[in-house]
Amino acid sequence: MLVATLALAAMGLILGAGLGLAARLFAVGDDNPLLKEIEQLLPGSQCGQCGYPGCGPAASALLEGRAAVTCCPPGGVALAEKLAELLGVALDAGQMSAPLLARIDAAQCTGCTRCYRACPTDAIVGANGQIHSVLANACTGCGKCLAACPEDCIGMAAQQPTLDHWRWAKPQAA
Amino acid sequence: MTPDQPACGPFAHDRSTVNRLMLHVCLALLPASLFGLYLFGWPAINLWLLTCAAALLSEAVCLHLLGQPLRRLLDGSALLTGWLLALSLPPWAPWWVGVGGSVFAIGIGKQLYGGIGQNLFNPAMLARVALLIAFPLQMTSWALPHPLGAAGTPDFLDGLRITFAGAAPLDGMSGATALGNLKTQLTLQRSASDILASDFRLLPSLLGYSGGSLGETSTLLLLLGGLWLLALRIVHWEIPLAMLLAVLLPAALAQQIDPLRYPGALYHLSSGGLLLGALFIATDPVTSPVSRVGRLIFGGGCGLLVYLIRTWGNFPEAVAFAVLFMNALSPLIDRTCRPRAYGRNPRGKPLVAASWTRRAKEVDKV
Amino acid sequence: MFNLARIRGGIHPAGHKDRSAALPIGTLALPPRLYLPLLQHAGAENLPLVKVGDRVLKGQLLASSPSELSAPLHAPSSGRIVEVGPIPAPHPSGLQVNGLVIECDGEERWIDLDVPADPFAVAPLILAERVAQAGIVGLGGAIFPAAVKLKQGTRHEIKTVLVNGSECEPYLSTDDRLMRERAEAIVDGARLIQHILRAYSIVIAIEDNKPEALAAMRAASEPFGAIEVVAVPARYPMGSAKQLIQEITGREVPAGGRSTAVGVLVHNVGTVYAIQQALRHGRPLISRVVTVAGSCVTSPRNLETLIGTPAQALFDACGGLAREPRQLMLGGPMMGVQLPSAGVPLIKGATGLLALAAHELPQREAAPCIRCARCVDACPMGLTPLQMAAHARVDDFDGASDYGLSDCILCGCCAYVCPSHIPLVQYFQYAMGQQDERRNAARKNDYIKQLSEARTARLAAEEAARKAAKAAKAQQRKPARPVGEASGAAPIPESIPEPVAERISESVQP
């Protein structure tokens, strides 16, 4: 009886000391490395489509679980998957909406260059007094150009389906 | 994407169906089954009918409960499971052994895992082992052959009595199987050659005129069905071949070393469920590996286990245990033994390209 | 049945070739309009060189691309360009593609062709360039620009020019008829390719179910040495380049590599014929032989078809459709695609046009996999289709790749033998498409990141420059009055900034 009690007590002490040591050694500091990693993944265009003021705040929101991994439309499914893996959460890809792109109505554009300057990714090309156009492969769909346009001639639209973007659908499950 | 998706090729098919595969296996089992039913008479016929019917009924109930189309019943897999289970039972077992076994096989062995194609273990063997452990007495009472129409054979009413009322068979109507007999006699310090000389006849054993499970006795008829399936390429040759060799080679070897202790290869081949197991049970596609090397390992493992358990284990018969054990390993085998892909070495790395890069200068000149 | 071939797996689908192979290659009345998609090859889309209203001559260059990986487009007949814009695509999606529409004037007036002198006296690379200018692509269905293959081949030691006359797809008999009727031209083309590549030998591989083609090709190659006509076992997919190389040379093309890695260059007989036409007669690729077949076609046969001819015109030339087809197809039933309507045009890669009835199509719905491993046995690439599909089904694309998705040639043998009728090929197409999508998205994400970082840096630099300028002015202000301080406030770049210029060049050469 005595031996058993002592043995249990000793085990408790050793394990407790081990836990305490581990807590010291492997303590996670305030500058969470995960946060950096998430920021690295995000586009960094500070477009604000996630509802946070920029990619930095969005990263901390993601880390704290306030934002869903699907919150970043420019990143698309690829980013959502990476985030889900990094954060260890399940991903419902069905929540992702098709990314929208800005489109300039050439008939109304005066070439004022305001949208050009508002664009966080330099996705609008054009020069002063000439019609601007949007480069689809650089546009994140943040919509900042919409607010900047004095002619109200920019709209957001899903990308036109083309054979390049057409994909076979998943077969109906058997 | 357009709302109604276009169909994707190929737009040709060899018109095979799961249903046709399963029915071919049943057809291949027919000769051996009919012989077993003839040999063991009315009680066996009752048991076989009940087991198959119970399997179909359990499948129907499970499909209904799982909200799946009842059409799935027609794929024939439940019938085959029930059929195989019936063939592996003692022919005069009471009705609840067959029915309970079927319910267990379909409900727990198959549908609980997610239905057809999802089960890890062969459902029929799972049920047989469960029955063997739960009801050792009923599962080891072997009727001696009582062919239909022969004198002293139970008639239809006797058959009903044996199957449903659990009427004890008369003395002299039951006995041990060859394997069981050997095991018991060996413990009585008799030598194997001695026992076999007095109690074992090869020819009747090959033909199937001996005690044992309902469908396992006729080695020749089972071989006939199995060869037909092999010729149709419904079962792969690797598992039966590897399994039989893995039993027969050690048996022959051991007999050479000590004929007093170990019986020979032909004895192993003709007794018990080895052939039924090798041709029809271990070859169940769902629970066996998909690559050729994997199947060879699987079959070899089954055979070796059969020999080990029969020779040194506690049970006289071993096919069910061996198959279940290898079933558990088959996902692992599948993971490690993959076919070598075209253009890659066996470890999956691309083959090294020969360097045909002469003439670079010559071409530049042009 | 034992596998007498060297290739692994494979299947023996019913041929259905007899009816169309029995009739000689027919001709087609000139359709009123020709519809020419700008992208009919693997690579970058062509840019139109003509505008609406232009008159064009037969064989005139209509569109080309500055990219090396492309094949220019020529006018199949003389007439007037009536449209430059979206036209219906011969694609299962039913979407439209950019293209040109020619209204034929019926005169069939050729442009002046530059008929070369003896091509054997011309340097190989110049011949390869001529092939490039003729807009020739792989006519067996792969539509890879033929000249790109040839130019790559000149950089390697090519032992064997392998002329692919296997045509293993059911229903199709274009190569069969072409070999029977134009054997000399094909042999000549093969010798020209040999000349371009300075290859040691030519092997013409024909499936043993085409005895007439074998005989014709043997007779035509008789006068020349170092041409071997080989009968290969009829087995699908013998016509796949990788499998044919394995059958003929016994060697496997390394995964991710090209056939030049084993010293072989494969060209389909149709491509070889087109190359011969280009090098001997200066003719660009403006027509091809198409098999029109299927039980709904009144009299199936092969037709010499101008590129851009609407599918309906081919059916009309074959006596029309005997009954309403269940499905229209471009290519063979194994690897071909469903067509949305008979209004779509035939393109360079169209080997066949099928009108299939319900009884010719697999109908059953899919059942769960029973792991019977028939797909594993049938796979000519040695993959494990059932595992690939199982992983694709749960969107585990890395898992699917691990089981060989990246090696899959989409031949469809697995789906052909599957007793559960699982749409394995569609699972693979789906998984490959999703992998593409993810790669594109990741690339775009990286790109956007770069752009936004560059912009931040640029703005910071501008800010710093402005501050410096302000400070400098403040220094100067003491003696004099400041002038035009606002001029530096809104930087309007005069030239296109660096990243934009990069993007423009990138969009031209993807």
List keywords for this structure.
heterotrimer; B: 366 residues; mainly alpha; two-stranded antiparallel ribbon; 16 helices; 2 strands; globular; disordered C terminus; C: 510 residues; alpha/beta; Rossmann fold; five-stranded mixed beta sheet; four-stranded antiparallel beta sheet; 15 helices; 16 strands; 16% strand
Whole-angstrom Rg of chain C: 27 Å
User: Which blocks of ≥5 consecutive residues of chain C have pLDDT under 50?
Assistant: 482-510
Structural class based on helices, strands and sheet pairing of chain A: mainly alpha
Kindly report the CATH topology of the domain at 34-95 in chain A: 3-methyladenine DNA Glycosylase II, Chain A, domain 3
> How many angstroms separate the termini of chain A?
62 Å
What composes the largest sheet of chain A?
2 strands, antiparallel
Strand order of the largest sheet of chain C: 13-12-16-14-15
Terminus-to-terminus distance of chain C: 48 Å
Secondary-structure-derived class of chain C: alpha/beta
Strand content of chain C: 15-25%
Q: What is the overall shape of chain C?
A: globular
What is the CATH domain class of the domain at 34-95 in chain A? Mainly Alpha
Major beta-sheet overview of chain C: 5 strands, mixed
